[in-house]
Design brief:
Layout lengths: L11 E5 L32 H13 L4 E5 L9 H7 L5 E6 L4 H11 L3 E5 L5 H8 L4 H13 L5 E7 L7 H10 L3 E7 L2 H4 L8 H11 L2 E5 L4 E6 L10 E6 L5 H5 L3 E4 L4 E3 L9 E2 L5 H13 L9 E3 L5 E3 L1 H5 L1
Parallel strand pairs: 1-2, 1-10, 2-3, 3-4, 4-5, 5-6, 6-9
Antiparallel strand pairs: 7-8, 8-9, 10-11, 11-12, 13-14
C-alpha cells in the first residue's frame, strides 16, 4: 500500500466516468473540475471501458481496496455494468448517482457486483428539489432509492448538500432515515471554494449541535475523525434505526489529514486532491507501466489541502502556503 509524505495510506479511489449529467445542480463542482458538463452524447475524451479497468487493476496491485464510481452521472455510461463486473474482486465497488436510472438498472448492477450506492437527495420537497437540481425528476429519484433497496443495496446512503436552500430540510431528512429501514444520511458541507456563492454557506457546527441533541447515540470514527449520529423515530421505543454522518471538509485540516483517496477524472488524469487542479497527472496512453508510474508520483506528491497547501496567517485567515507552492 502506498503512503504519501504525510503518512497517509491510499486505500480508495474515486473514478469519474463522465462529466455529463441529466441534472444541473446549483452546487455542482464536478469532482472539483468546475461545471464543465456538455452535451449528453458520449464524449471522445472519456476513458473507455478498458482504460478504467486497466487503472483499477493497477490500483489493486497497490492494495487499494475500494472504488467509488462518480460523475457527472455515471449511469449515463452504458458500459457501467461491464466496468463493475470487471473490477478486481479485491475491491469494494460503490456508486454515487442521482438515482434516476436505478429503477431499470439496479438489479443488473448488483448482479455485476455493485455493493453500495449513494443517491443524491437534497430535499423531501418536489419544488425545492426542482430549484436545486433544475430537474423535475423527483419521483424518479424516490423510485430509484426504492429500486436500490429492493435489489439488495442496503443500506442506501442519501447524499444531501447542506446550504442556504436545503438547510431547513435537515430535520425532515433525519426523520426520514430514522423512519425508513435501510436508509442512511450523509450531510455534505457546501464548498464555496469550488462552487462559488459563499453567501450560500451555513454554519455546519450548528448542524452538528442539533444532531447531538437529536441522536440516541453518537459514534466517533477515529480513522476519519468523523462523528456518526444514530437516530430513531420520534416518540418511539425503537432506537438507532438510522445513521446520519456529516462530511465537513471546509477549512478543516483534520479532515485533510485523514484523506486516503486518489481521484481519477473522466479524461484519465489522476487527481491527488479534490480542491486542486494544479496536480493533475496524465496516465499517458494507459499502459500499465505508465499508470504505475503516474500513480506512484501522484501519491508521493499528495499534500493535505488545509494545514499544508493552505495555512493560517497571523490573523487566523487561510492563505496559500508560499513555501510549498514555490517548492
Amino acid at each position: 500500500m502506498l503512503e504519501d509524505g504525510f503518512g497517509r495510506e491510499v486505500t480508495g479511489v474515486r473514478v469519474s466516468l463522465t462529466d455529463r449529467c441529466n441534472f444541473d445542480c446549483v452546487y455542482c463542482h464536478n469532482e472539483g473540475l468546475g461545471d464543465t458538463r456538455g452535451p449528453m452524447e458520449p464524449a471522445d475524451d472519456e476513458m473507455d471501458t478498458d482504460d478504467v479497468v486497466r487503472f483499477l487493476e493497477v490500483a489493486a496491485e497497490f492494495d487499494v481496496d475500494a472504488v467509488k464510481f462518480t460523475g457527472g452521472e455515471p449511469m449515463l455510461r452504458q458500459d457501467l455494468e461491464e466496468i463493475v463486473r470487471r473490477t478486481p474482486d479485491s475491491m469494494e465497488t460503490s456508486l454515487t448517482t442521482n438515482g434516476t436510472f436505478l429503477p431499470d438498472r439496479a438489479d443488473g448492477l448488483v448482479d455485476a457486483g455493485l455493493e453500495r450506492v449513494n443517491v443524491s437527495q437534497d430535499a423531501l420537497s418536489p419544488e425545492t428539489f426542482k430549484q436545486v437540481t433544475k430537474s423535475s425528476a423527483y419521483d424518479d429519484v424516490m423510485a430509484g432509492v426504492d429500486a436500490a433497496l429492493e435489489a439488495g443495496l442496503d443500506p442506501v446512503k442519501l447524499n444531501m448538500v447542506v446550504f442556504e436552500q436545503t438547510a431547513g430540510y435537515v430535520p425532515e431528512m433525519v426523520d426520514h432515515v430514522a423512519d425508513n429501514e435501510g436508509l442512511q444520511l450523509q450531510l455534505i458541507e457546501y464548498m464555496p471554494e469550488l462552487a462559488g456563492r459563499p453567501d450560500w454557506a451555513v454554519d455546519i457546527d450548528r448542524v452538528h449541535g442539533w444532531l447531538e441533541e437529536r441522536a440516541d447515540r453518537v459514534e466517533h470514527r477515529e480513522m476519519h475523525d468523523r462523528r456518526r449520529y444514530w437516530v430513531g423515530p420520534d416518540d418511539s421505543a425503537e432506537t438507532e434505526t438510522g445513521m446520519v454522518e456529516i462530511v465537513d471538509p471546509v477549512e478543516n485540516p483534520t479532515f485533510c489529514a485523514n484523506c486516503h483517496r486518489v481521484r481519477v477524472t473522466h479524461e484519465g488524469y489522476l487527481k491527488g486532491c479534490l480542491n486542486r487542479n494544479d496536480d493533475l497527472k496524465s496516465m499517458g496512453e494507459m499502459t500499465k507501466p505508465e499508470i504505475r508510474e503516474a500513480f506512484r508520483e501522484t501519491v508521493e506528491n499528495r499534500v493535505p489541502y488545509y494545514g499544508e497547501y493552505m495555512i493560517r496567517d497571523d490573523d487566523g485567515e487561510w492563505v496559500f502556503n508560499d513555501d510549498y507552492i514555490e517548492a
